[in-house]
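Nitronate monooxygenase domain-containing protein
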Amino acid sequence: MRLIALADLAVAISKAGGIGFIGAGTDVSDLETYLESATKLLKDAEVKTNGTLPVGVGFINWGADLARALPVIAKFKPSAIWFFAPSSLAELRDWTANYRKASPESKIWVQVGSVREAGDVARECSPDVLVVQGTDAGGHGLAQGAGLVSLLPEVSDRIAEVIPEEKHRPVLIAAGGLVERRGAAAALVLGASGVVMGTRFLASHEAVLAKGYQDEVLRASDGGQTTVRTKVWDNARGTAGWAETHNGRGIVNRTYTDALGGMADEENKRLYEEDVEKGDQGWG
């Protein structure tokens, strides 16, 4: 939900009883503006907090200027800080420590996609929350992984091994392919304490994206056939900083089928950029 979930959507979710996140992703240049907007939107809202701003902020570690964002976090003190895709475990450990010092009441959330990653992060970074993402998820995640049905119980068992005392273990939150109550109920049975939804909110009025893109999300069904995990869209957009271990799931469109048919990356990127300029007409 990078730069799609901003102040309006985050606040709407928090007002409804969840916790909404501002998806800064790799671009923190307007983070202060987004948090100022959230503060104004929440001015008269009756949302109980521990003295923090009742929204979260999500970062994609490998590309975000976390040093630049640090004083902004210290100023606004969001309820949660979500880290994802660090360049290394050591880097993640340092930034979790730095952000805890800057905003001690903010909860640290870390997104993981494998049992090993979950155990390492729990042991080295002591997050408050582990977001366990299965491979059904839309957007970016591990290229090789498992769905929540097998991943979540195994992660839970691994955390119990790494952190024997239950009171010191992170809360497990499920992510990936969850869009309604049946999936949420299944995640709770598997051991999660809650769920994260992203793609579901692409259809909301508050989401910042082209109407044509929204229409495609609403039109698509049979997701195992109409979506695919690939690096094609990163290549077309120029967001090529992702590690080889990660790719993204999206709806199959001409950018993907042209790449599959052998079109050169440069030509595909040119056509993609032309379609983006068309706005709503350029999607799908």
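thats it. The chain has a mean pLDDT of 93. The two ends are 18 Å apart (CA to CA). bye
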